[in-house]
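Hey L., structure's done. Input below.
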Amino acid sequence: MILITNDDGIQSEGIKILYKEIKNKYRCVVVAPDRERSAVSRALTLYRPLRVEKINGDFYSVDGTPTDCVNLAVNSLFKSKIKMVVSGINKGPNMAEDVTYSGTVSAAMEGLLLGIPSIAISCSAKDGFIFETSAKIALKIIDIVLKKGLPNDTLLNINVPNLRFEELKGMKVTRLGKKKYSDTIIEKVDPRGKKYYWLAGEEIGYEPLENTDLEAVYNGYVSITPIHLDLTNYNVIEQLKKDFGAIKFF
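Output:
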C-alpha cells in the first residue's frame, strides 16, 4: 500500500490528481492535514491530541502537520504495510534552501526515518498548475522505486516544470541549488495600535550553478535530487578539530 500525503491540505487539487493517477495501478490511501500547513518543516504536534476524520473512501484528514500524518498512518491507522510514502503534489517548487522549510519534503523525511522508501514531488509554478504532468512523473518514479528500492538514508525530492507532459525535455539527477531572496518585512499597525509584521521576501533569482535542481527545472527538465538526513559537513571536521582542539577547560 502506498501512503499519499502533502502540506497543502486534504482538499488540494494536487493530492486528488496524484491519488487518481496512482490508484489505477497501486493500492493507495491519502492521509493529509485538514488545512494548508506549508513551511512547517518537520514539526510534530506534541502538546495536544490529534484527531483523524475519514472524509470518504481512502481519504483521511488530520488536524496536525504532514509529519503527524505520516506517523499516524504508519504506526496506527492501517494494518496493511505501507510500502512507500509519496508526498505531494505541492503547489509550487521545493528547491534549493526551501527544502529545509518544506512540509512536503519533511513528510518524505518522516517516511525515510520510519524505514519506508519515500519521495516528495512538487509542481514548479505559482498558479495555473498542470498537476497532471507531475502525477505522471510521480507514477513513473514510483514504478522504479518499488522495483529497485532506494539507497539507504535517501529520499528523492522531485520538482516538475509546469509544462504539458509532451513538452518536458527529460529528467536530470541534480543537487540543491542556491536561491536569491529579497529580505522584505512589511510592518503595519492593527486597529488597536499594536504593530504586526508580514514576512514578504520573494525569490529574485538564483546562482547559475551547474547540475542543480534550479537549473534543471528552469530549463524544462524534471529534477530528481537525492536527499539524506545527515547534515554533517564532513569537509570541515579536520579543520575544526585543529581550531577547537586547543581549548582548555581546566
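Residues 2-178+208-244 form a domain with the Stationary-phase Survival Protein Sure Homolog; Chain: A, fold (CATH 3.40.1210.10). The chain has one domain: 2-178+208-244.

-- N.
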